[in-house]
Structures are given as structure tokens and as C-alpha cells.
Amino acid sequence: MCFMFMKCTSFDQDIGRWNVPNVRDMTEMFSDAREFNQDIGRWDVSNVESMYSMFYKAVVFNQDIGRWNISNARDMSEMFRSAWAFDHSLRSWDVSHVLDKHGMLPEGYPETFYPRNL
Questions:
Q1: Does this model's pTM top 0.70?
Q2: Do residues 95 and 118 make contact, with C-beta atoms less than 8 angstroms apart?
Q3: Pfam families annotated for this entry (predicted)?
Q4: Where does residue 81 rank: exposed (0-12), middle (13-18), buried (19+ CB within 10 A)?
Q5: Contact (Cβ atoms closer than 8 angstroms) between residue 82 and residue 59
Q6: SS3 111
Q7: What angle do CA 33, 67, 26 make, to 5 degrees?
């Protein structure tokens, strides 16, 4: 699913019921999808290994994904870079196993919402 909606600047469809438990790579999936703001909080992302730049420049995305199981994620670098609207808590995420998490959160993201072990 990597690059699936990359640069789809007007994409904002309801894809919250998609069945994604076998997906391993969501690299830049919503990168530059500037209008996307749908609830994908029920997705099973437990097998995803790369979330690199997944929401990069998804400037209006602001949905609760704090219940995602990220136990297999290895690359979360720049996941929310320039995703200015995102302000949901990720406190339930334990990112101690993630190998690359540099620049994961947008500038100004509240420290009280940071994932554990960031």
C-alpha cells in the first residue's frame, strides 16, 4: 500500500473499513494527501513494518489512531512530518522496538501525547 494515495491532494474518501491485516508496508501512503481526514482508527496495522512518512504533509489529518497495534513497526521516521493538524494522543504506543523514529511527530506536538519510549 506504499505510495497508494501519495499526492492525491483532494482525496478524502471513507476507507475506514478496509481489511489491511496482511499489509507490511504503508510507506508514504497518505503523503501529500492534503484533504484526507477519515477515521482509520479501526485498521489492523499489526503486521505493518514501515510507516515511513505515512502522513507526511497530510495537513488536515486529525483522527484518533492511538489504539493501533504497532508492535511490528520498525520504521516510523517522519510519520507525521508537516501533518500540522494532528493532535491526538499516542501515549498507548510503545515505540521501544522501533528502529527509526527520527522526526516522527510534527513540530509543536504536545509532549503529553508522545508515545512511550520515544
A1: yes
A2: yes
A3: DUF285
A4: buried
A5: yes
A6: helix
A7: 40
Q: Which residue has the cell 520498525?
A: 74
At 85, the amino acid letter reads A
Query: What confidence tens digit (pLDDT) does each residue in 61-104 have?
Result: 999 999 999 999 999 999 999 999 999 999 999 999 999 999 99
| Burial class of residue 3, CB neighbours in 10 A (0-12, 13-18, 19+) | middle
Nearest to 75 by CA among 57, 94, 91, 98: 98
Cell of 118: 520515544
Alpha helices (H) in 18-100, listed in sequence order: none
Residue 115's contacts (CB-CB under 8 Å, 6 or more residues apart) are 90, 91, 92, 93, 94, 95
